[in-house]
User: Which sequence fits this backbone?
């Protein structure tokens, strides 16, 4: 794993674009993001166009790109939570969100906080700031309370060794422009469903726990009023908001 960490560091620090062989996961006209695994984390670099230039992921288009930001992200496969340590502009920021949608299709409990230089002066202090931020955010987010605050905290604690490896990589990335914060909703398709997970979806959609129930045989007991109207602001009714998100979960059964 040390060799892989060193390889990731080398690629992130090779700021002239075109040096890294990574998967391009986002390729809009205005830029793209490269992602590499690092233990339980993913390390990403986001590129955008230089003024008056076009930035594409391969060929001569690399010359028109500039590095906008780098980040270490934790988004476990069976827990709909995302924690990201972002390097953008002259410092670090902590991004937190639940990988579920509210009735308007927005990311749930999305939060971004700039971390101070004191908070990020070492790997240990950065970890402390992230833990404190996660704890406070978890208590204020109904969806995380549905999952179980202790469950999220315990799962995050396991990634500290990987974050300690990611910190010096991000620390050495400098000269980044200050760009606006971005918000997106990742897809979340767990391989295994739990009752707390279903309760988190219910909370994300503005409803009480227990609306969708996990049976002993693994099936999801769920039905909803299909005649309920959308809100005046375009928000989905509660039942549709839940159904849109759990219909691809293992154990889901469509009811007519």
Assistant:
């Amino acid at each position: 794993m040390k060799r892989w960490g060193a390889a990731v560091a080398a690629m992130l620090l090779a700021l002239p674009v075109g040096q890294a062989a990574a998967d391009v996961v986002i390729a809009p006209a205005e830029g793209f993001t490269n992602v590499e695994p690092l233990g339980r984390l993913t390390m990403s670099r986001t590129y955008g166009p230089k003024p008056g230039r076009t930035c594409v992921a391969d060929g001569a288009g690399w010359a028109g790109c500039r590095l906008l930001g780098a980040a270490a992200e934790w988004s476990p496969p069976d827990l709909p939570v995302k924690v990201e340590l972002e390097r953008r502009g002259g410092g670090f920021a902590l991004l937190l969100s639940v990988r579920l949608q509210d009735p308007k299709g927005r990311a749930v409990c999305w939060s971004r906080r700039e971390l101070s230089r004191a908070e990020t002066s070492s790997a240990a202090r950065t970890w402390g700031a992230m833990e404190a931020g996660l704890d406070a955010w978890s208590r204020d987010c109904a969806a995380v309370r549905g999952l179980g605050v202790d469950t999220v905290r315990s799962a995050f604690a396991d990634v500290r060794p990987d974050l300690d490896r990611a910190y010096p990589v991000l620390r050495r990335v400098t000269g980044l422009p200050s760009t606006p914060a971005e918000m997106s909703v990742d897809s979340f398709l767990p391989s295994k469903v739990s009752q707390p997970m279903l309760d988190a979806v219910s909370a994300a959609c503005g409803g009480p726990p227990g609306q969708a129930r996990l049976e002993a045989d693994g099936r999801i007991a769920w039905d909803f009023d299909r005649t309920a109207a959308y809100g005046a602001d375009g928000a989905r009714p509660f039942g549709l908001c839940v159904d849109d998100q759990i219909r691809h979960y293992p154990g889901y059964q469509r009811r007519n």
